[in-house]
């Protein structure tokens, strides 16, 4: 059973072909990173135009690489939210047009659910109840997944998403966009002698990263006022450690409290090597984390999630609209 997944919620135009919800046949991602890097962040208008230019080629390339003919595609899964409205519209309308023209069922997928299902790809299926720590550029939260399609949100960020904090602190340090990979890279050279505060928000499964971001700004101002060169690797490392410490400790604690059988780490920030290590070390239960290449936005995770929705009998109506603030659970 082949599903074509289409994802255009942010700045990656992506399509993939996945068999039976877990076997990855082809995964094509056209990144707009270089274009947005010029502006220091994602420009929504530029993103949607770029999706328009790339979408047809990206989908055709995914089919060619699988290889698969249109007649073999049993369903088209597409992200309908959350994300940038203009970006979501390109993927959704493309998916609708092809599905209608070729008589293929359409399945709507929540982007966050997609990040969770990236852990199903080319790996043994995780076991329920599954505690999911989702950390991306737009979202940060803890979800308890009791079965396919059943989520309960335990907590979320009260201000910035973890990835957003990485991007903002990277900009403060002059490291460019996207910030997560840049911070990880320079932090590796740190001697590790600076420390930044953690917001624990005890008694809750919530997170907060804006205080840490402000603390990083004050630290940079203090160091610069001292006149010496800014120790960029030290500040980057102190920031990364503070984010990772809180995420890993709170996820481990929630896994204990909920009696989850496994812990799943997903979203763009799950590509962070320190976070992957910290979660694996502290979790009381086995940890599932997708390969780094599947942590950031891609169509394969949408196809995988779409397969399970298709199998449960779900079909999207032709008047399906985008939901920029769609929630999970
Ligand atoms: O999931 P994603 O591709 O897009 C959203 O759905 O938001 O996540 C992108 C975010 C960006 O904020 C980026 O800086 C962050 O993931 N990211 C990382 C790393 N790679 C990507 N953050 C920390 N360390 C990384 N290695
Ligand atoms: Zn994402």
SSE layout and pairing:
Layout (H helix, E strand, L loop, with lengths): L1 E6 L4 E8 L3 E9 L1 H5 L6 H22 L7 E9 L3 H18 L3 E5 H7 L12 E6 L4 E8 L2 E7 L5 H11 L6 H9 L22 H16 L6 H27 L3 E5 L6 H10 L4 E2 L11 H12 L18
Parallel strand pairs: 1-4, 4-5, 6-9, 9-10
Antiparallel strand pairs: 1-2, 2-3, 6-7, 7-8
Helix pairs in contact: 2-3, 4-10, 5-6, 5-7, 5-8, 6-8, 7-8, 8-9
The site of 5'-O-[(R)-(carboxyoxy)(hydroxy)phosphoryl]adenosine has 19 residues, from helix 5 and helix 6.
Whole-number count of domains: 2
- Listing every helix as H and every strand as E from the N terminus to the C terminus, the arrangement reads EEEHHEHEHEEEHHHHEHEH
CATH class of the largest domain: Alpha Beta
State the major sheet.
5 strands, mixed
Write down the overall geometry.
globular
Overall CATH architecture of the largest domain: 2-Layer Sandwich
Low-confidence stretches: none
Q: Which structural class matches the secondary elements?
A: alpha/beta
Radius of gyration: 20 Å
- State mean pLDDT (0 to 100 scale): 97
Overview of the molecule:
The protein is an alpha/beta fold. The chain has two domains: about 1-120 and about 295-310, Nucleotidyltransferase, domain 5 (2-Layer Sandwich); about 130-290, ATPase, nucleotide binding domain (Nucleotidyltransferase, domain 5), CATH 3.30.420.40. Helices cover about 40% and strands about 20% of the residues. The protein has ten helices and ten strands. The protein has helices at about 35, 45-65, 85-100, 110-115, 160-170, 180-185, 210-225, 230-260, 275-280, 300-310; strands at about 1-5, 10-20, 25-30, 75-80, 105-110, 130-135, 140-145, 150-155, 260-265, 285-290. The strands form two sheets. It has a five-stranded mixed β-sheet with strand order 3-2-1-4-5, sandwiched between helices. Strand 4, helix 3 and strand 5 (about 105-110) form a beta-alpha-beta unit. Helix 5 runs parallel beside helix 7 (about 210-225), helix 5 (about 160-170) runs antiparallel to helix 8 and helix 8 runs parallel beside helix 9. The model has no long low-confidence stretch (mean pLDDT about 95). The structure holds 5'-O-[(R)-(carboxyoxy)(hydroxy)phosphoryl]adenosine and zinc ion (ZN). 5'-O-[(R)-(carboxyoxy)(hydroxy)phosphoryl]adenosine binds near residues 137 and 181.
């Amino acid at each position: 059973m082949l599903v074509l997944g289409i994802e255009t919620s942010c700045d990656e135009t992506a399509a993939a072909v996945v068999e039976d919800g877990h076997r990855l046949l082809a995964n094509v991602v056209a990144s707009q990173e270089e274009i947005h890097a010029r502006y220091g962040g994602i420009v929504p208008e530029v993103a949607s135009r770029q999706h328009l230019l790339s979408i047809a080629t990206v989908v055709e390339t995914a089919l060619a690489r699988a290889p698969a003919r249109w007649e073999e595609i049993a369903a088209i899964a597409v992200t309908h939210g959350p994300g940038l409205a203009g970006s979501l519209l390109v993927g959704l309308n493309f998916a609708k047009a092809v599905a209608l023209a070729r008589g293929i069922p359409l399945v709507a997928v929540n982007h966050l659910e997609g990040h969770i299902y990236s852990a199903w790809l080319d790996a043994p299926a995780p076991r329920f109840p599954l505690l999911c720590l989702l950390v991306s550029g737009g979202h940060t939260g803890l979800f308890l997944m009791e079965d396919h399609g059943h989520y309960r949100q335990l907590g979320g960020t009260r201000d910035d998403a973890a990835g957003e904090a990485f991007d903002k602190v990277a900009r403060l340090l002059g490291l460019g966009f996207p910030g997560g990979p840049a911070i990880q890279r320079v932090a590796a050279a740190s001697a590790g002698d600076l420390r930044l505060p953690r917001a624990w928000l005890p008694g809750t499964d919530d997170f907060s990263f804006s205080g840490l971001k402000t603390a990083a700004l004050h630290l940079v101002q203090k160091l610069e006022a001292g006149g010496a060169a800014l120790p960029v690797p030290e500040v980057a490392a102190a920031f990364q450690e503070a984010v990772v410490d809180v995420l890993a400790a709170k996820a481990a604690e929630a896994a204990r409290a909920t009696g989850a059988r496994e812990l799943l780490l997903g979203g763009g920030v799950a590509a962070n090597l320190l976070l992957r290590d910290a979660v694996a070390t502290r979790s009381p239960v086995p940890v599932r984390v997708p390969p780094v290449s599947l942590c950031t936005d891609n169509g394969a995770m949408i196809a995988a999630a779409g397969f399970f929705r298709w199998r449960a009998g779900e079909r999207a109506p032709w008047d399906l609209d985008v939901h920029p603030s769609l929630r999970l659970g």
